[in-house]
Amino acid sequence: MFKWIHRFGSAPFVYRLAGALSPWVGMACLILLCAGIYIGLVVAPSDYEQGESYRIIYVHVPAAILSMFVYVVMAIASAIFLIWRLKLADVVAQASAPIGASFTFLALVTGSLWGKPMWGTWWIWDGRLTSELLLLFLYFGYMALRAAIEQPQSAARAAAVLAVVGVINIPIIHYSVEWWSTLHQPATISKMGESSMHPSMKRPLFMMIFGFQLLYAYVLLIRMRTGILQREARTSWVAQLPEVARD
Amino acid sequence: MRCIFQREWSVAMRNPGQWVNPLLFFIVVVTLFPLGVGPSPQTLSTIAPGVLWVSALLAVLLSLGALFDADYSDGTLEQLALSGQSLPVIVLAKVLVHWLLSGMPLLLMSPVLGLLLNLPSQAIPVLMVSLLLGTLSLSLIGAIGAALTVGLNQAGVLLSLLVLPLSVPVLIFGSSAVAAAAGDFAASGQLLALLALLILALSLAPLMASLALRNGVSGGT
Amino acid sequence: MNELLKVNDVTVWRGDNLLLDDVHFALNAGQVLQVRGANGSGKTTLLRIVCGVGFADEGSVQWRGESIERNRHQLNNELLYLGHKPGIKGALNPIENLRIFCALSGLEASTKTDDLIKNALANLSLSDKAELPCRFLSAGQQRRVALARLLLQHAYLWVLDEPLTSLDKAGLAWVENQISQHVSNGGAVLLTTHAPLQVKGVTVNTLEL
Q1: Secondary-structure percent of chain C, ordered helix, strand, coil, rounded to 5
Q2: What does the buried/exposed string (b/e) look like for A74-107 if buried means 16 or more CB atoms within 10 Å of the residue's CB?
Q3: Which residues on neighbouring strands pair with residue C36, listed in sequence order?
Q4: Res C55: pLDDT
Q5: How distant is the Cα of C11 from the closest Cα of chain A, in angstroms?
Q6: Residue C146 has pLDDT above 60, yes or no
Q7: Sheet containing C3-14: order of strands
Q8: Least confident window among A97-106, A152-161, A193-202
Q9: How many angstroms separate the CA atoms of C209 and C21, rounded?
C-alpha cells in the first residue's frame, strides 16, 4: 500500500501518466462538447417562455457547477498537502486555481448575458450571481497570495491554508448571500435550470456538464505537467527527458 | 496566555496610535456618507445600518493588517513559534487584546454615530450587540489574513483581497439585524447567526492563523 | 543518549543559486560547533533550518534521533534560539522583556522569577537600565538583554546567530564563559560568529560553508 502511494506520488511517474492520459481525455472532451453544443443549440426545442435565449444554460450551468467543483478539488488537494506534505497535491491545487477562476468568470459573463433579455439589465444582485462573484474574489485572493510570496514552499503552504479556510467559508457565504437576496427580493424570480425541464433539453445539458469536467481534467493534466517540470527543473530525470534535452 | 495578554496590553498602551486610529477612521468614514449622499434624514436612516457596518468592517480589518508585523520584524514571532507554548493560544490572546483596543471603542462610539445618521433609537441596542459579536468574528477572520501576509510588502491590499470575501456573512447578518430592528422587526435570528459565526471563528481561526504564522516565519530570511 | 542533533544532507536553493549544498554534521552533548563562512553563505539559513523555522529543499534534521517535524515540541522545549533579530520589544523595559521569555519557557511569573531576572541583569551589568524601555538602550546593551536569556532559560541546545555582534570585550568574555559552563554541564552549542572563539576547556569544532 505504502509503496503504491509512493509510486503514485513520484513526480516522473505522474508526469508520464499525465502525458499518456491527456490526449485521450482531450479527445473525449472534444467529442462530448461538440455533440453537446450541436444537440443543445440546434436539436433541442426552444423554450416555451424564454424562446431561444435559454440555450445559454448549456454553457452557464456547467461553468457554474465546475467553478464550485474546482474549488473543492483545490481545497482537498491543499488539505492533503498540509497533512501529508505530498508535493503533488500542491501541484494539483496550483494548477487548478486559474482553471477554476476561468470557469467562474465564464459563469458570471454568461449569467449576465442571460440577464439582459430576461430582466432587462446586465447585472442583478441575485443570490447565485453574487456568490459566484465572491467565489471569483476567493480565486483571485488565492492566486494573488501565491504570487506575493517569493519562497516557493512558503507560498505553497500559505495558499493551502487559504484554500482550506475558503472551502469552510464557501457554504456559509453561499447560504448567507442566498438568504440576503430573498430578503431583498421577495418576488421569486425563476432561476435558470431549476424549473422542470423536458428530457430533450436535459440530455445535452448533462453532456455539456460532463464535457466541461473532461475539459477541466484535460487542462489540469497539461498544467500539472508544467508544474512538475518547474518544480523538478534541477533533477536529473528532467534533464534526461527527450523533450527537454532537445533544446 | 496571561503573560502574553499582559505583554500585548502594555505594548499597545505605550503606542496609543494603534487603538486611536481605527476609531478615528470609523468616525471619519461614517461622516463621509452624509456628505456623499446628501443630508436627507430619510435616506440616511435607510442606509445607516449598511454604512455603520461597512465602516466598522473596514476599520477592524485595516487595523488588523499590522497585527503580527511588529513581532515579525523584531524577531519576537520566531521566538513565539519556537517556544514550548501553544501558538493558537498565543494568537487568540493577541487577537483579544487587539479587539479590546480597536473593536471595543468602535462599539462604544457606535450609538453616537447611529444618532448622527438618524438611526431609530430602538435599533441602537441591536447595533451594539451585533457589533460586539461581529467585530470579534472579523478580528478572528482578519487574524488569518494577517498571518498569511506576515512579512510581505504591500500586505495591506492583499489582506483586504483575502479577507473581505470571507467577511461577507458577518456583514450580511450584522447589517440586516440593525435594519430589522430599525424597522421594528425582531432581530434575534440574525444575532443568533452572528453568534454561530463567532463560535465557528473562535474554534477555527486561531488554529488556521497559527498554521499560517508558522509558515510565514519560516518563509522569511 | 549522546547524539543530540543530526543534520543530513541539507540542500537549499535560492532561485537558481545553490545556497547550501549537502550540508551534514552531528552535534553531541558537550560540543561546540562554530559555523563559518562569508556573508551570504547561508549561515543564518542553516541555523534557522536546524531550529525548524526555515525550509530546506532536501535533507532532514533530527533531534534525539527523530525528525524535528515530528519531534517539534520536544525540540522547542530543549532549544534556546538567539536569532539575528533579538526579539526584544523596544516599548518594554528589560525586566518586562525577559519576563515574556521566562513565561514562554514555562517559568511561572512570580517574585522568584523576577529575582532571577534581576540577578541575570546584574550579571550583565545592566542593573541601572532595568526599568528603561529598551528602545533607549544601545545596540550592545540590547544584545546583552537578549543574552540574559542564557542565564534564565534551561535548554540543552543553544543556537546562537552572531551572538557577539556589537558586544564589547567584556561582553565577549562573558559569552565565552557562559558557553564553556553550558558545555561542561552537558549542553551543546551551535553558533555563527566571525570573531575567533576561545572557550575554556573545550575544542571548538568548525564547519566552513
Answers
A1: 35, 25, 35
A2: bbbbbbbbbeeebbbbbbbbbbbbebbbbbbbbb
A3: C208
A4: 85
A5: 12
A6: yes
A7: C17-28, C3-14, C58-63, C66-67
A8: A193-202
A9: 9
Q: Tell me the fold of C3-208.
A: Rossmann fold (3.40.50)
Give the range of the structural domain holding residue B134, as residue numbers without chain letter. Answer: 2-216
Local structure of B184: helix, strand or coil: coil
In angstroms, the separation between the Cα of residue B8 and the nearest Cα of chain C is 10
- CA-CA-CA-CA dihedral for B20, B21, B23, B27, to nearest 10: 130
> Does any domain span residue A197?
no
Nearest to A154 among C13, C55, C57 (CB): C55
User: Rounded mean pLDDT of chain C?
Assistant: 88
Q: Which of residues 8-47 of B touch C (CB under 8 A)?
A: 10-11, 14-15
Chain A residues with CB-CB distance to C57 below 8 A:
153
Question: B54: which 3 cell numbers?
Answer: 461597512
Per DSSP, the residues of chain A read -HHHHHHHH-HHHHHHHHHHHHHHHHHHHHHHHHHHHHIIIIISPPBTTTBGGGGGHHHHHHHHHHHHHHHHHHHHHHHHHHHH--HHHHHHHHHHHHHHHHHHHHHHHHHHHHHHHHHSSS----HHHHHHHHHHHHHHHHHHHHHH--SHHHHHHHHHHHHHHHHHHHHHHHHHHHHHHHHH--SPPPPTTTS---HHHHHHHHHHHHHHHHHHHHHHHHHHHHHHHHHTTTSHHHHT-HHHHT-
Q: For A15-40, what is the mean pLDDT?
A: 94
Chain A residues whose CB is inside 8 A of the B158 CB are 141, 144-145, 148
- The domain total for chain A is 1
Domain annotation covers residue A3: no
Domain of residue A75, residue span:
13-45+52-188+205-245
- For residue B166, which residues of chain A lie inside 8 Å, CB to CB? 138, 165-166, 169, 173
Secondary structure letter of residue C107 according to DSSP: P
Say whether pLDDT at B189 is over 50: yes
- A194 is a domain residue: no
Q: Is residue A123 part of a domain?
A: yes
Total domain count, chain B: 1
Q: Which residues of C touch A82 (CB under 8 A)?
A: none
DSSP C132: S
